[in-house]
Specification:
Blueprint lengths: L1 E5 L2 E3 L5 E8 L7 E7 L6 E6 L6 E3 L7 E6 L4 E6 L8 E9 L2 E4 L3 E5 L2
Parallel strand pairs: 2-11
Antiparallel strand pairs: 1-3, 3-8, 4-5, 4-9, 5-6, 7-8, 9-10, 9-11
């Protein structure tokens, strides 16, 4: 089982990034997909959720209207499109897949918003 995030980096305020989450070793299409973020000394924060089929999404208030979560079950991929980025979006972003008690996390990808 593997969950691997990619796409992080350094971006100026107002810029965009698209994070990817590549899943393997399990039936990705059955799992809910979540994106979290975390800064040192702080709790991990739920950013966005998408159901297994992609028919339902949910966002933290802090990212609504700026971030879009999506998935391609045929490719076993999840995505987080992040627009209008702010310095407070700086964090390590994690992908999590969940089916009941089966939970798989990725290792995280650093996103830094700075001029």
């Amino acid at each position: 089982v593997q969950v691997v995030e990619s796409g992080g980096g350094l971006v100026q305020p107002g810029g965009s990034l698209r994070l990817s989450c590549a899943a393997s070793g399990f039936t990705f299409s059955l799992y809910e997909l979540n994106w979290y973020r975390q800064n040192p000394g702080k709790e991990r924060e739920l950013v966005a959720q998408i159901s297994a089929t992609g028919g339902w999404t949910n966002y933290a208030d802090s990212v609504k209207g700026r971030f879009t979560i999506s998935r391609d079950n045929a490719k076993n991929m999840g995505y987080l499109q992040m627009n209008s980025l702010k310095p407070e979006d700086t964090a390590v972003y994690y992908c999590k897949t969940k089916l009941g008690s089966l939970v798989y996390w990725g290792q995280g990808t650093q996103v830094t918003i700075s001029s």
